[in-house]
Each structure stands twice: as structure tokens, then as C-alpha cells.
């Protein structure tokens, strides 16, 4: 699959803005996004990036086995950091050009989008004080590590995020399949009201429709980050 440019991502995110027309959410399109896309590692840094994500994937799937929303909160807890850090560092160090302006906006929008994913799943599980503290420390540690890494190699960081987004797409696909099979772990999960407002869904929207919308976002993050790593940031 050909990866898409960040301008496509901006068009996608524009659907989330206040006042955006979301009366025609194309669920058929969201059902048929390319969930199997995988960027084949080409250089040593790609292999390192993929290995890091593969280890995280193995551990989180083992730890959160079947606990879909808790797994989602973990994935989303740190997911808004890359866009935030990338946007700010491009703002500080980037050249003043229309292309750079688009890049900064797309990265900050990605961050806002990921933050919303965290908030909507947090609405469902209502994290305990201990879980909130763990999320706080995980976010701080990831923020510092990602900042330092981004100053060293933007290409590597966007490749890592691209692979993390591949994992996010696969995770939400598993979530959808669990809903379709009616497994006990997903039967009582409420539909987050924040998701209905954010995606401008009907009041009687289903959990499946919410997960489809979130997975669509993750596919755009995947494409834009692999594109940023491979095509733009030389
Ligand atoms: Fe997300
Ligand atoms: Fe994402």
C-alpha cells in the first residue's frame, strides 16, 4: 500500500473539528481500511524500531490479554506524546515554510486526536488513583525519552511511531473481532459519550462504530508517521 502524505492526514482530522459535518460517517470505508499494511524494515534503524515495538507488543498483549479497554488506555496513554513533541520541536527548530507549517499542524492534531482516544477509554474504565499515578509517570518518562530521541533522529522516532500505529490498528481489529464474536469481556463495555460527541455519531451509536472510528484514526497515524520517516525528513 502506498503511504499517504500528511496533507491527507489533515483532511482526515478536519472531520473532528467543532462544526465539521459528520452526518455522513462512512462506516463502510472504515470497515475496509487496509489493516494489514506493514512497512518492511529496510535499514538497520528500521529493524531496531520494529524490534522495540515487537517487544512492547508481546509484553502488552500478554499483560492485558482480553482486557481490551485497559489495553487501550495503556496504548493511548503515551500516544499523544510523539505528535506533541514533534510539533513543538519542529516549531522551535524548523524552517519557516508553508510545508513546515502543515507538518507542525498535522503533528499537533495527531496529539490532540490521541489524547481524545485516551480520554474516551478512560471514561469507560474510570482509572483508580494508582492507575492514574502510573499513567502520569509513564507519560513523563516517555516524554523525556521521546524528546531526547527526537533531537537525535527524527527519522527513527517517526519509524517507531509508525510501527506502534501498526500495532494499534491490529489491536483495534482484534477488539472489533471480539465484539463480533460476542466474547464476555466486551459485552458490558459502555459506549463513551465523549466518543459520540467527538466523532459526531448518533446518540444510539454502538461500541463497534466507536472502535471503527478510532481504528480509522490509527491507520492515518500509521501512514503519516511512516511517510514522515521515509519521505520528508531527510
Ligand atoms: Fe490512538
Ligand atoms: Fe495512533
From TrEMBL:
Tree of life domain: Eukaryota
Keyword ATP-binding recorded: no
Gene Ontology, cellular component aspect: membrane; mitochondrion
UniProt cofactor(s): Fe cation
TM stretches of this protein: 47-64, 73-93, 129-152
GO biological process: alternative respiration
Gene3D superfamilies per record: Alternative oxidase (1.20.1260.140)
Intracellular or extracellular location(s): Membrane
GO molecular function: alternative oxidase activity; metal ion binding
Signal peptide span: none
The UniProt record lists the keyword Glycoprotein: no
InterPro entries on file: AOX (IPR002680), AOX_sf (IPR038659)
Keyword list, A-Z: Electron transport, Iron, Membrane, Metal-binding, Oxidoreductase, Respiratory chain, Transmembrane, Transmembrane helix, Transport
Family label: Belongs to the alternative oxidase family.
Protein name from the UniProt record: Ubiquinol oxidase AOX1C, mitochondrial
Amino acid at each position: 500500500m502506498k503511504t499517504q502524505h500528511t496533507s491527507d492526514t489533515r483532511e482526515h482530522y478536519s472531520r473532528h473539528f467543532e462544526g465539521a459535518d459528520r452526518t455522513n460517517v462512512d462506516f463502510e470505508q472504515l470497515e475496509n481500511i487496509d489493516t494489514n499494511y506493514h512497512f518492511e524494515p529496510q535499514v538497520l534503524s528500521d529493524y531496531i524500531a520494529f524490534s522495540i515495538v515487537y517487544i512492547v507488543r508481546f509484553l502488552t498483549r500478554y499483560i492485558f490479554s482480553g482486557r481490551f479497554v485497559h489495553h487501550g488506555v495503556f496504548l493511548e496513554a503515551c500516544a499523544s506524546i510523539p505528535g506533541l513533541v514533534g510539533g513543538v520541536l519542529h516549531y522551535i527548530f524548523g524552517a519557516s515554510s508553508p510545508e513546515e507549517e502543515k507538518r507542525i499542524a498535522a503533528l499537533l492534531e495527531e496529539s490532540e486526536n490521541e489524547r481524545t482516544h485516551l480520554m474516551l477509554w478512560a471514561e469507560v474504565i474510570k482509572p483508580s488513583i494508582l492507575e492514574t499515578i502510573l499513567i502520569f509517570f509513564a507519560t513523563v518518562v516517555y516524554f523525556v525519552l521521546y524528546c531526547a530521541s527526537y533531537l537525535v533522529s527524527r527519522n527513527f522516532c517517526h519509524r517507531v511511531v509508525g510501527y506502534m500505529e501498526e500495532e494499534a490498528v491490529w489491536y483495534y481489529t482484534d477488539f472489533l473481532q471480539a465484539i463480533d464474536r460476542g466474547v464476555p469481556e466486551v459485552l458490558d463495555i459502555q459506549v463513551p459519550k465523549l466518543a459520540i460527541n467527538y466523532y459526531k455519531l448518533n446518540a444510539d451509536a454502538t461500541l463497534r462504530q466507536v472502535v471503527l472510528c478510532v481504528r480509522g484514526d490509527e491507520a492515518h497515524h500509521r501512514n503519516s508517521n511512516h511517510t514522515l520517516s521515509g519521505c520528508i525528513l531527510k
